[in-house]
Design a protein that fits this description.
three-stranded antiparallel sheet, 10 helices, 5% strand, globular
Length: 256
């Protein structure tokens, strides 16, 4: 697409450089893309919940199963998912323990390092479209967790907005550093991390239920489900690496 343009530009004064792509990166991209192209893998899901203008929208699990079943059979379909709507104001009647609030604040802080994780990941997987496409899907979901945690803490009167904004700024004054410098190890790293985070969210939801905060627990349960889903996808990505280099992948798994 650069034919006829001066070297080093695409015609819009944008500097470009040549980037070599290896055979291994091509194979990885093909293998990882196949994960999402094959409905049998179960990783192409409808967005199970969202936040729109301070309103939580939860899609029914039954409808999600129906959509998956239709997609698996290869039958064209069009369906409208039943939605449960919970305005953030409905959370104002709920209270949960300060211990649970502090744990949720910790989750909010850790998720605030998302730009650093994304920066490192995009750099590593830039030449592997299958992997980079997954990260572009993963990041908005994690970003939604930040917004959900903030809403929960504010609407249940556990933290005020200014305090949370100051806390997040404090977090952002530090930079999370990618712990590994290779694609494969950074594909392995989030697998247990996401799984453990999902387990933490489920435990947090259980505590909220014990405190009578059932709507808040519903939000944390959905966040936990997201994390388990993310872990499953990373597990499948690791399997692609293992198919190309079983011993090297095994060594990296033990190291990570």
């Amino acid at each position: 697409f650069l034919d006829g343009q001066p070297e080093g530009t695409d015609g819009y004064r944008i500097q470009i450089t040549k980037v070599p792509i290896t055979d291994e990166e091509r194979m990885l991209s093909k293998g990882i893309s196949a994960i999402f192209d094959n409905p049998e893998n179960g990783v192409n899901r409808q967005q199970p919940w969202s936040i729109v203008n301070g309103v939580f929208e939860f899609h029914s699990a039954l409808a999600r199963r129906q959509v998956k079943s239709q997609a698996k059979g290869g039958v064209p379909f069009k369906t409208t998912l039943p939605i449960q709507i919970i305005p953030a104001q409905a959370l104002r009647a709920e209270r949960f323990s300060p211990k649970a609030a502090n744990a949720l604040r910790m989750i909010y802080g850790i998720e605030s390092w998302l730009p650093d994780f994304m920066e490192g990941s995009v750099e590593l997987y830039r030449n592997i479209p299958g992997a980079s496409d997954w990260y572009f899907k993963w990041v908005p979901e994690e970003s939604m967790h930040i917004r959900a945690s903030r809403l929960l803490l504010i609407e249940t009167d556990n933290k005020d907005p200014e305090e949370l904004d100051e806390f997040r700024e404090e977090v952002l004054q530090t930079k999370w550093v990618t712990p590994y410098t290779t694609q494969r190890r950074m594909a392995i790293y989030p697998y247990p991390q996401e799984y453990l985070t999902g387990g933490t969210d489920y435990l947090e939801a259980r505590v909220m239920k014990q405190d009578g905060a059932h709507l808040s627990a519903r939000v944390l349960t959905e966040i936990g489900s997201d994390e388990f889903y993310h872990s499953t996808v990373f597990e499948k990505i690791i399997s692609v690496y293992a198919s190309l280099d079983p011993e090297g992948t095994k060594e990296d798994i033990y190291d990570v």
